[in-house]
Amino acid sequence: MSYEFQGKEIQTTATGYLSDPEDWSRELAEYVAKLDGIELGPRHWDVIDYLREEYFENNQSTPNTRTIIKAMSDKWGERVDQKTLYDLFPLDPSKQGGRIAGVAESRRKGGY
Questions:
Q1: Which keywords appear in this protein's UniProt record, sorted alphabetically (predicted)?
Q2: Which residues lie across from 3 on neighbouring strands?
């Protein structure tokens, strides 16, 4: 599988995750999100930035939904629940969010 983006073919895994994390850009993230019917807003970017930071600065960690909830509650200064994150990334905040963020696919089962 691949994405045709800005005149280049971006290689992905069979499930749509980038084969080479170096191919990621904010513009590519917006493109992938649009393919999923998502218009990225500030809260989406908070989650994406968090997922990228955890992956690239924390030994390739791929946080589950519970961990994302805690991090966004701290960041946003309010109680965040699972529904809030699923409103942003309906197919699963950790998996769909991670795919848009350009990190490797999480191998864990369940999101909460």
A1: Cytoplasm
A2: 10
Residue 12 in 3-state DSSP? strand
Nearest to 25, CA basis, from 38, 42, 8, 37: 8
Measured from the Cβ of residue 71, the count of other Cβ atoms closer than 10 Å reads: 18
Residue type (1 letter), 58? N
- Look-up of token digits 């769909």: 96
CA dihedral angle for residue 27, residue 32, residue 34, residue 39, rounded to 10 degrees: -60
Residues 6+ apart with CB under 8 A from 91: 36
**Reduced to 3 states, what is the DSSP secondary structure of residue 62?**
coil
Sign for the pseudo-dihedral over CA of 105, 35, 85, 49: positive
Closest CA to 18 of 30, 31, 3: 3
The model's pLDDT over 51-69, given as tens digits with 9 standing for 90+, comes to: 999 999 999 999 999 999 9
28's torsion region: left (phi>0), alpha (psi -120 to 50) or beta?
Answer: alpha
